[in-house]
Specification:
The structure is a single chain. This protein is of the alpha/beta class. It has twelve helices and 15 strands. The chain has a seven-stranded mixed β-sheet, sandwiched between helices. A four-stranded antiparallel β-sheet has the order 11-12-15-14. Strands 1-13 form a two-stranded parallel ribbon. The radius of gyration is 22 Å and the shape is globular. The N and C termini lie far apart (66 Å). Bound molecules: pyridoxal-5'-phosphate. The site of pyridoxal-5'-phosphate (PLP) has 13 residues, from helix 4.
Length: 401
């Protein structure tokens, strides 16, 4: 009889956002017609840039013309797009060949699929609080997980330390959910650690476009990373592609383990397991990297950053401690009065109709913290910030009474 993958039995019962949706839907059923201020979602709210829309339309028209029609695309990505992305890295001083860039259908797909390259016996180190898919994808693969907790003491940026042992290292910078971002010296410590032990870093750069300080956007800005890192990136948050789906993965040719090239293994994987990303989407993605596309996506990012500024100003006035918000679209706050994060979630929903994300959903060390996203509607964000400030100020004065 067929034996299913029993590792699925080790997954936590319900996914964080599913649980939030269940709670908010139940609340809405009890309060018909009420409006919720949704500051929890990691989805974007602004439409695609005009340059992208034009490119998508042109590509659709191409598909209707015999001499411009495209069938199967190269599995690892359209050569011109691979070149364009390599040139995007070049602007930051990172020299890549187009063959080191793989066009993907998004970071989530890649974060799961890339595990094909590694033996199940490898231990996966996950800095926490973490994007839940890192943990779940490794549980599904039956891999042992080493949880590396972080907290206010290290500003949610854990570093390698004595006794730490793992083969696959997940780093997400700027971080979801904490909004914190590593500097060069900190990333250099991880690169040195990974190279010394022959480990591989999976660097999630999904939020690189939100960086405004002088911080690395890519792990490959760190010398030595080309022999120990894979970078996974996405246009989802950078350019509003959450529903359109396009991303890219960088695997340097210098990255080898046990005499095998991980780049060559990934080519073999993609040419077996995919038939390439659609021509239309790759044309839309290419438009993001044009001068006009870059200007337009940064106009949108500025709107999200203004949302973050409004939320941070409200927390500042209420005297609440928080992290992030500057180089990432997430603000990570300490729940008031030591409240647990699901209780705080319920109070925000019941008392001010603001929906956020409880920190506990990102790992045990996220308990006592709460995440707000700056991807919401600007008017809703302003109203949510005003309501939040009022409630937090009330809770604080009750605490002192
Ligand atoms: N990585 C991180 C850290 C994320 O927060 C997300 C989405 O929220 C993803 C990856 C997934 O991105 P994509 O939409 O490209 O699958």
């Amino acid at each position: 009889m067929l034996k299913p993958n029993l590792s699925y039995g080790n997954l936590k019962e319900s996914y964080l956002f599913f649980h939030i949706a269940r709670k908010t839907n139940a609340w809405l059923a009890d309060h018909p017609g009420a409006h919720l201020y949704r500051m929890g979602i990691g989805d974007v709210s602004l439409p695609l840039a005009p340059a992208v829309i034009e490119a998508l339309h042109r590509a659709v028209d191409d598909q209707g013309e015999k001499d411009r029609f495209h069938g199967y695309m190269p599995e690892c990505g359209m050569p011109s797009l691979r070149e364009t992305i390599a040139a995007y890295y070049g602007k930051r001083g990172v020299s890549l060949s187009p063959e080191e860039v793989f066009v993907s259908s998004g970071a989530s797909d890649e974060l799961g699929d890339i595990l094909d390259l590694f033996d199940r016996s490898n231990r996966a180190l996950i800095m926490e609080p973490a994007y839940p898919a890192y943990v779940d994808a490794n549980i599904m693969a039956g891999r042992e997980i080493v949880h590396l907790p972080s907290g206010p003491d290290n500003l949610f940026l854990p570093l390698p330390r004595e006794g730490l042992d793992a083969d696959l290292i997940y780093l997400c910078s700027p971080n979801n959910p904490t909004g914190s971002a590593y500097n060069r010296e900190q990333l250099a410590q991880w690169v040195a650690w990974a190279n010394a032990r022959g480990a591989v870093i999976l660097f999630d750069a999904a939020y690189e476009a939100f960086i405004e300080e002088d911080l690395p956007h890519s792990i490959f800005e760190i010398p030595g990373a080309e022999t120990c890192a894979i970078e996974i990136c996405s246009l989802s948050k950078t350019a509003g592609f959450t529903g359109t789906r396009l991303g890219y993965t960088v695997i340097p040719k210098a990255l080898t383990r046990s005499g095998l090239s991980l780049n060559a293994m990934w080519v073999r994987n993609r040419t077996t397991k995919t038939n390439g990303v659609s021509y239309i989407l790759q044309q839309g993605g290419a438009a993001v990297f044009t001068e006009e596309g870059q200007r337009q996506i940064h106009d949108n990012i500025r709107i999200y950053k203004e949302n973050a500024r409004v939320l941070m100003a409200a927390l500042d006035r209420a005297g609440i401690r928080y992290w992030g918000g500057k180089n990432a679209p997430y603000i990570w706050m300490a729940c008031p009065g030591g409240m647990d994060s699901w209780t705080f979630f319920d109070r925000l929903l019941d008392e001010i109709q603001v929906v956020g994300t409880p920190g506990e959903g990102f790992g045990a060390c996220g308990e006592g913290f709460f995440r707000f996203s700056s991807f919401g509607d600007p008017a809703d964000t302003r109203e949510a910030a005003a309501r939040l400030e009022k409630l937090l100020t009330k809770l604080k004065s009750a605490d002192h009474a």
